[in-house]
Design goal:
By secondary structure, the chain is of the alpha+beta class. The protein has twelve helices and eight strands. The strands form two sheets. A five-stranded mixed beta sheet has the order 6-7-2-1-8. It has a three-stranded antiparallel beta sheet with strand order 3-4-5, with no helix packed on it. It is a multi-pass membrane protein.
């Protein structure tokens, strides 16, 4: 009579092996552990119904043994499973459980246990195996499942950056196609055709402010908040709020500069997520800002400057006395102050920040070779 094997899920730390045997209602299982093998036998309810189950495994390396050459494993019998904890002879990370590269079909990897527990009765903190042994978890998951399970944060960041990249490519494509057909006549109604897409992409960029807040990316919140809010102010409070500025050529040049910056920035971020160093992409990311950032600030300043007489006329966003709050706010005066801050301290802050990043990212690597 052939004794079926139950499903067995294994996990490890550098000091022990944990086996979860998928059997229900097991009573007094027979477990025999030697130096480098394990045998199990027990009656329970498994994939083949209620019957006698058993398996034998030759292990990749040796286990701790007592004086008679055997090990007394920790056996935990639960209603829906049996768990075994085996101590390794030497603290090391096994590339697989079995001595042979080919593992039986009923042997699976317990990924949940690898992520959160160490399989021992101890008060130690839970260990992050993916961090402690980079690459090992992904390789085993690919062997087990046929594909590599990506971290949800990484998947989200890739989708976000890819979406933004496609969005700004769309803006550039529409502007380019219209300019090729209509030439300079297309400039005046640029906002009409790509304004809605640009507004949506700009609002989406506020997610980049929240990414470091929730630990999705490294870095601080202040710099992305100032950069995104500065663009949002120009786009919504200056261009969207004043129809007469929407037809000016400066809007075409501003959208062109913003899009050129982003179609390099977002692919660079995707390459960094996967830790792929593409030199030309890195060089473009930390070099294109040298002409584009000053030109972008210049275009934003022109938009604000051109809007001052318009808002003087319409008094939009201006709060005049008397009112129930006893508060006055003159929006054109605010624009003049904002223009001074944007032109001098704002440009200096942004350019200094990017210069520091460029110095770090593009500094030459010094290779020291030892002489024989």
């Amino acid at each position: 009579m052939i004794v079926p094997s139950p499903f067995v899920y294994w996990a490890q730390t550098d000091k022990c092996i944990t086996l979860k045997i998928d059997l229900k209602n097991v009573v007094n299982p027979d477990v025999n552990v030697s130096d480098n093998s394990i045998k199990f036998s027990g009656k329970g309810i498994g994939a083949h119904g209620e019957t006698q189950y058993g398996f034998s495994l030759d292990l990749f390396s040796s286990l701790k043994s007592n004086n008679d050459g055997n090990q007394d494993p920790i056996v935990r019998v639960f209603e829906n499973r049996v768990e075994l904890v085996l101590q390794k002879q030497k603290a090391s990370w096994w590339p697989r459980l079995t001595a042979q590269p080919q593992k039986p079909a009923w042997l699976k990897i317990n990924f949940d246990l690898w992520k959160s527990e160490d399989g021992q009765d101890s008060d130690d903190e839970a260990r992050d195996v993916m961090r402690d042994y980079p690459g090992m978890y992904d390789r085993l998951h690919q062997e087990e499942m046929g594909y590599r399970k990506e971290d949800l944060k990484k998947v989200y960041l890739v989708i976000y950056n890819l979406f933004q990249f496609i969005g700004f490519v769309y803006v550039l494509a529409v502007m380019g196609v219209r300019y090729a057909k209509l030439e300079y006549e297309s400039v005046s109604d640029t906002y009409e055709h790509v304004g809605p897409a640009m507004k949506f992409l700009q609002l989406m960029q506020y997610l980049e402010v929240m990414h470091p807040m929730f630990g999705y990316t490294k870095g601080g919140v202040l710099v992305p908040f100032l950069q995104v809010s500065g663009r949002a102010f120009v786009l919504f409070a200056m261009i969207e709020a004043e129809p007469r500025i929407q037809t000016k050529p400066v809007v075409f040049y501003l959208f062109l500069i913003w899009s050129l910056i982003e179609i390099v920035r977002y692919p660079f971020y995707i390459s960094q997520i996967y830790k792929k160093e593409i030199y030309i992409l890195t060089w473009l990311r930390y070099t294109m800002w040298i002409p584009l950032y000053p030109l972008g600030i210049l275009c934003e300043s022109i938009v604000i400057l051109r809007n001052v007489p318009y808002f003087e006329e319409t008094q939009r966003f201006t709060v005049s006395l008397p009112n129930e709050w006893n508060f006055a706010f003159h929006f054109p005066s605010f624009l003049r102050i904002y223009l001074l801050v944007l032109t001098f301290p704002g440009m200096f802050f942004v350019m200094s920040h990017m210069h520091k990043l460029r110095t770090v990212k593009l500094k030459p690597k010094v290779i020291i070779k030892k002489s024989k």
